[in-house]
Design goal:
Two copies of one chain form a homodimer.
Chain A: H1 8-16, E1 25-26, H2 28-35, H3 39-51, E2 55-57, E3 64-66, H4 69-80, H5 83-98, E4 101-108, E5 111-118, H6 140-147, H7 151-158, H8 174-187, E6 190-193, E7 200-208, E8 214-223, H9 229-249
Helix pairs in contact in A: 1-3, 2-3, 5-9, 6-8
Chain lengths: ~260, ~260
């Protein structure tokens, strides 16, 4: 697929994605190298980002870090469309009932963003990065959300997937996805058996917005070695209930079976 | 002062500022009108912002709202540089001890951003928008932060102020600020007597970062009709203590008196 020429705005915004919990500060050269842009372009972008509060530059070390503008935008978004506040109690209850790591993701502009993670208080558990975007093809959340998109939108997003092979069980082509989508629609949930992480079995249901489109997914990421028929049954029952309740709480519309 | 020509990146980022708790959704024409740009420019900017998760477009109404990307950036920033988590207990204690609305602001890239507000549980109190940028010239927080900047940086930011006249007591020129800066440095706190809101007396101290520069301010916004000598004394004592403690908690350096 031909890559469209990026606008300067795209470049500037994409620079923000290089900052992470693991790497919260960067110098100009480092950032230019990571992004693959020349230093002049990066400097011009960073100046505009700094003028608008998205970036701060340490006055001594001259290294860049994220600014405070995203905090205000995040609070405006959450106060106007309180999604995280609605998700949290459902995810917490799911974790209590299954005693495995539970999480919610939100589908936004073709991406699946981890929104909230709830860890069980036990020594062996799945540990998740609460700040990551999830790959659609390798996770139960991605599969169940894609399965419930209108076919034209699904075709569009599947066309953008890179099908990175995370484990021996990762599906690596659009064709391999079709039966997974069909099964997810039929069952109302998707399961990913060690296709993203070895030793993790994910189960997910979608929740739906007022337009009847999937707004995101809630999921349980369970340790594979203790995943038996009983736990499988508990997880899918709890998820199906939670998915319905969450859709209602969001004023959403469930798909007709 | 001549206004510099804005880059496309500046334009795109400035569009985000039109979204607020009061106005969380907007159509293209409305946004173009508010920003004063032509529709083609706004559409190009919004497409780039949407591709990067900063904006979502409602698939039915076609209206724009803020996306989820800022939430992730805000969490990365707060996890790497946990400023809000440090500020909150200090602001809460200040509210308990003074029984008036307390808040913290952060100085970032020449702006003063409201970071955290704590309301007392009483009927008559100052109500603050926790999402607003504060005007430097009219607020105690702005005055005390500007007062402690190096003279060259202070001259630069004062040159950008618009000196909007909020009340009859708002200072409206750079010259009117000088005695306020000098007094704030001498006392260690600034007071704004109904210069931003009629009926509100603000008192603020700066807190300092590791470079010895002001990182922000903590303040008490008190109802003017009950502001007497005793409350004034309580507020300034509590603030001076809190400012020192907060500076230490941030590994900061206090200015030499």
């Amino acid at each position: 697929m031909a890559k469209p020429v990026m606008s300067t705005v795209d470049k500037a915004l994409s620079l923000l994605r290089h900052f992470s919990v693991q790497q919260p500060e960067m110098g100009l050269s480092e950032l230019a190298r990571m992004a693959g842009y020349d230093k002049t372009t990066v400097l011009r972008c960073m100046t505009a980002l700094e003028n608008n509060g998205f970036i701060e530059q340490d006055s001594v070390s001259k290294r860049y870090r994220l600014g405070l503008a995203p905090i205000n935008l995040a609070r405006i978004r959450e106060r106007s469309f309180p999604l995280l506040a609605v998700l949290q109690p459902h995810v917490d209850r799911l974790r209590e009932r299954t005693n495995e790591t539970s999480h919610a993701t939100v589908y936004s502009s073709g991406k699946l963003v981890n929104a909230f993670v709830s860890d069980p208080d036990r020594a062996i558990r799945v540990s998740m990065d609460p700040y990551a975007n999830l790959p659609f093809h390798a996770t139960a959340s991605g599969i169940v959300v894609a399965a419930h998109l209108p076919p034209s939108e699904r075709a569009k997003i599947v066309g953008k997937w890179d099908f990175e092979k995370f484990t021996d069980k990762t599906p690596t082509s659009p064709e391999a996805m079709e039966p997974l989508f069909a099964q997810a629609r039929k069952q109302g949930f998707a399961r990913s058996d060690q296709s993203y992480d070895i030793d993790v079995i994910g189960t997910a249901v979608a929740f739906f917005g007022p337009t009847g489109l999937p707004a995101g997914a809630i999921a349980v990421a369970a340790v594979a070695s203790r995943f038996d028929a009983e736990l499988a049954q508990t997880i899918q029952q709890e998820l199906l209930t939670t998915g319905r309740e969450l859709t209602m709480a969001l004023g959403g519309i469930l798909p007709t079976p």
